[in-house]
Structure formats: structure tokens, C-alpha cells
């Protein structure tokens, strides 16, 4: 199963200047709960943005076009197809970014795990690709949350599955 996991603003923004647009502790907690024990697949820039390197208790796969590049604690492949060929059919693979990797993974994905932040950031330079009508997604779960002392924006956890 291939699952895309992402936090998106109302306008589709996901990043600015190589960093996430929003840092919501509830989103980070959900990300960790969903991905721990599974495979995370990401682009080189996303891996390099991780503050502590490879994510613990997960198989880390990094996509890079740079030959002879390696990252501690991670496997590297030149394409999403090559990376997925090295995964077993029983393996759950979470695609965690960035925008180019999301774009490549969208047609292959079975599931979307979205944190929709009900806000529009003042600055953004990276956006999630349109995941609308072309892929026939079905909303299977929606959990709405109001702002609190740790999460300053209202947000929703959404789970979509591709219709057969």
C-alpha cells in the first residue's frame, strides 16, 4: 500500500524556503503514529531538511538523481519506480515529500493522509499537486480540531482512499 502523508494549507501550500509552512504538534504526533514501523519515502531535499537525519523506527528511502550519494540510515534510489521495486507487497510505504515526489507518487498512491490546516500562510513557495477529480478519491475519515494552546490553527485530519 502506498500512502501519501502531508499537511496542506487551504491554498495547497506545504512549504516555504525549504521548511514546512506549519508546525502543529498534533500533526507531528499523527505523522509519527502512522509512519512508525513502516517505510518512509522522500526526496533528497526533504531528507536533508530532517533535523536529526533518518527517521527512527522506520525504513528510510531517499530518491536522488545524484549518483554515488548516500545518506546515513537511508537507502537511495534514482526513481520512485526503482524504490518501490525494492519494497515488498506487504510493506506500507508513506510518501512524505517534497512536492516533486508527491507529484510522481499521486498516480501510484492508494491513500492520502492529509492534515488540512484551515489557514492560508502569508508566504509559501511549495504547493501540493491537485489531487482532485483525476484520481477518484473517496473520503473515509474526517476528524476536525479547533485551535488550542499548542496548535494555533484549526485543522482536520482527512483520510482518502482511491476508489476501485
Short account of what is shown:
The protein has 164 residues and is α/β, with parallel strands linked by helices. The protein has helices at residues 25-35, 44-49, 80-85, 99-105; strands spanning 2-9, 13-16, 19-20, 39-43, 59-63, 74-77, 93-97, 111-117, 126-127, 137-145, 155-162. It has a single domain (2-162), classed as Dihydrofolate Reductase, subunit A (3-Layer(aba) Sandwich).
Topology:
Elements lengths: L1 E8 L3 E4 L2 E2 L4 H11 L3 E5 H6 L9 E5 L10 E4 L2 H6 L7 E5 L1 H7 L5 E7 L8 E2 L9 E9 L9 E8 L2
Parallel strand pairs: 1-7, 1-8, 4-5, 4-7, 5-6
Antiparallel strand pairs: 2-3, 2-9, 8-11, 10-11
How would you characterize this protein structure?
This protein has 164 residues and is of the alpha/beta class. The chain has one domain: Dihydrofolate Reductase, subunit A (3-Layer(aba) Sandwich). It has 4 helices and 11 strands. It has helices at residues 25-35, 44-49, 80-85, 99-105; strands at 2-9, 13-16, 19-20, 39-43, 59-63, 74-77, 93-97, 111-117, 126-127, 137-145, 155-162. The chain has an 8-stranded mixed sheet, with helices on both faces. The mean pLDDT is 94.
Number of strands: 11
| CATH-defined fold name | Dihydrofolate Reductase, subunit A
Low-confidence stretches: none
**CA-based gyration radius:** 15 Å
Q: What summary fits the major beta sheet?
A: 8 strands, mixed
Our estimate of the beta-strand percent is: 35-45%
Mean pLDDT: 94
Counting DSSP H or I runs of 4 or more residues, the number of helices is 4
Q: Tell me the structural class.
A: alpha/beta
* General shape: globular
Order of strands in the sheet with most strands: 6-5-4-7-1-8-11-10
The total number of structural domains is 1
Fourth-tier CATH superfamily name: Dihydrofolate Reductase, subunit A
Broad CATH class: Alpha Beta
